[in-house]
Structure formats: C-alpha cells, structure tokens
Amino acid sequence: MAGNQFDNYVASKPIYEAGNPNVKGRQHPTMTYMSAKQVPEANYYIELGWIYDIPSPNPHINEHVHDYDEIVLHWGGDWKRPQVLGGEITFYVGGQPITFNTTTGVFIPAGVPHGPMIWNRFEFPHIEMAMMLGTGDPFKGWGESGISEPRKSLPVKKEDIDYEQYVIRSPMRESPGALSGKGRQSPTMTYMSGAQIPGVKYYIEFGWIWEVTDTIGEMKHDNFDEIVMHIGGDPENPEDLGADMTFGLGGEEMKFDKNFAMYIPKGMNHGPLIWHKVRRPHIEMAIMLGAGTLKEGWGFDIGDMTRMRLARERGEDVRLTPGIEPEKPKK
Q1: Of the candidates 281, 249, 288, which has an alpha carbon nearest to the alpha carbon of residue 1?
Q2: What digits encode the pLDDT tens for the residues 255-313?
Q3: What was the pLDDT predicted at 1?
Q4: Are residues 24 and 151 in the same domain?
C-alpha cells in the first residue's frame, strides 16, 4: 500500500502479540488488527485468529474478568453457509454455560467473569474475534484478567441474571451492504446492536463477498466513529484478503490485497470501495462505535429500504445515504 497522510488510520499488517504459542489447533499468536499501537486514536483492541481443530489444551481460555466491556464473535469459515459455525462451543458467562454451534456474538459487560471456553466439537475452520471496548492496550484489557490461569473446577453461577440476554446466535438481516447484492451477502448479518441487546451502543454487521461486487461510493458519518475491516477467508494464508480492492479515505485512495482494518473518525469522508478482482471469498465488517441501531449509524432503517425499493420500481432516482448509489431501474 502506497503511503499517504491517512496511513495512521489503517492497520494493514497485524501485530502478533496475543495468545499462547503452546496451544495447538488454532492460530497463535492471533492477529491484532486494531490497537493504540497501530492507530493512536483507537480506544479499542481487536484481535482475531483461526481455529483449525479442537484446541489443545481444551480449555485454554480460562475464567477471567476485565475492567472493560468486551464483544466476542465467532464466525464460520464457509461462505456458502455463513451462519454455520463449524463446531460447537460452550462458553461460561457469569458462571452460566452458553452453548452454540452457529456464528455467534456475545456482549460481556465489564466486571462479569467469563470463561472457560470449551470446544465440544470441530467440523471445519472458523474465526474467533475479541474486541475490547475502552482501551487499545492489551495489557490493560487482559494483563491482570486471569485468562491464562487454569482452574480445577468449572465456575458456578452466583448472580440471578440470565446471561443468554447477551448472546446473539442468529443475525438480523437489515443492512443492505451493496444495493444490488451481486457477488455478496445482501442484506449482511448484524451480530451486535441495541435492538438485539438493549443498551448496547455498538452496531456490528458483516458479510461475505465472493466475486467483484458493486462499488460503494464516498460517504461520511457526522456523529460516530467507525471501524471497517476486510478479512480474508483462507485459514492456511490468514493475512491474504483474497481480493484486490481500492478504499478511499479522506479523498485519497488506498489499494489493498491483504487484510486491513480502518479507523474512520466521525466527519471523515470515506469511500469509494472498489473491487478490482476477487480470488477467494472474504469478509467485510463494519463496526459503528456509539450507535446501537442502523438508523443511528447510517441514517436509514428497514422501512427506508422498503420505501426506496418501491420508489425504484416506479423509476425514481433514490438513494439510502449520500454516496451509496442506487441500482438504476431496468427499462
């Protein structure tokens, strides 16, 4: 990627600093794609890694607790079956066992003990992503958490709280991605929002892209910062995006063929997003920081999409939000 004045908002090469290299069956160290080291303005830490088999030892993530909220996502590596995880995991949250075999998001409030994480079954490779909210420093997030300290017994639930309320096993499908849906999931999969978990002020939507898809035009968000990630789907070559694409930031174009994460401050123009070549399916993920709904973050909702579709059928020139061009009606 050629250098420009906005490089300090982009992590185009992961840091390998998190995890235990003695654990087998998974990517270790994991790939850090957002941190204060990479983007000084970022008050968030995002690391992710592929699971290749049942990790050994199992569990290797033990009960621990943070001073910050956290979001944990597991998504399946089969783009044709995006809601199938490729395994079964039991994750203890507040001492309550949460078992899932689908692509799943979990919101963990600060101070809630969580772990161990136990793989019950493995079918095919999948990704584990952890996002720490409120610090871009992994030591502040995990350093004194106890994550690496084995326990002799499983945790016991002590609070009269049903932690299932923080778990999203099936997505909402409301964000259009690209308008025509050609070559990509559209609508995308929403796995974190205030509509799914009341009070959450983060909106995470993502989906697979498997061939050259619609260009997404330039846009900006006046009220919220955003993180956009593009992550490849090859577990054997985890840094490879599997595509050649251009992403504009602040009026300057950047070219990528490897994974990248971009921190976009509120008010900064970003786009266009142009796919030149797609060699292998990959994930596009948008994380709106501080907005709990699609309407808050992007200025439209499912009702607006319905009205837009009806207007397009009438031949009217409409768009959802500035820069996202509508598909021209067919004559």
Answers
A1: 249
A2: 999 999 999 999 999 999 999 999 999 999 999 999 999 999 988 766 665 566 566 56
A3: 44
A4: yes
* 149 and 217 share one domain: no
Sequence-distant (6+) residues with CB within 8 A of 102 are 76, 83, 84, 85, 169, 170
Using alpha carbons only, what angle is made at residue 210 by residues 208 and 212, rounded to the nearest 5 degrees?
120
% the chain with pLDDT above 90? 78
Distances (CA, A) of 129 to 103, 277, 315: 11, 26, 43
Per the DSSP assignment, residues forming a β-bridge with 275 are 245
Q: Are 4 and 252 in contact (CB under 8 A)?
A: yes
Cβ contacts of residue 181 below 8 Å, gap of 6+? none
**Average pLDDT over the chain, rounded to whole?**
90
Range of the domain at 47: 9-168
- How many folded domains does the chain comprise? 2
**Structure tokens belonging to residue 263:** 């921190």
Which residues of the chain form beta strands (DSSP E)?
10-11, 24-26, 31-34, 44-56, 69-76, 84-93, 96-102, 104-108, 114-122, 126-133, 167-168, 189-192, 202-209, 225-232, 240-249, 252-258, 260-264, 270-278, 282-289
23-41 average pLDDT score = 96
Residue 175 lies in a domain: no
pLDDT at residue 141, as a whole number? 85
Q: Residues 271, 217: contact at Cβ < 8 Å? A: yes
| Residue 50 near residue 238 (C-beta atoms within 8 A) | yes
pLDDT digits (tens, 9 = 90+) for 51-99: 999 999 999 999 999 999 999 999 999 999 999 999 999 999 999 999 9
pTM for the model: 0.91
Are 129 and 33 in the same domain? yes
Query: What are the distances in angstroms from CA 103 to CA 54, 76, 286?
Result: 17, 6, 16
Chain centre to alpha carbon of residue 108: 15
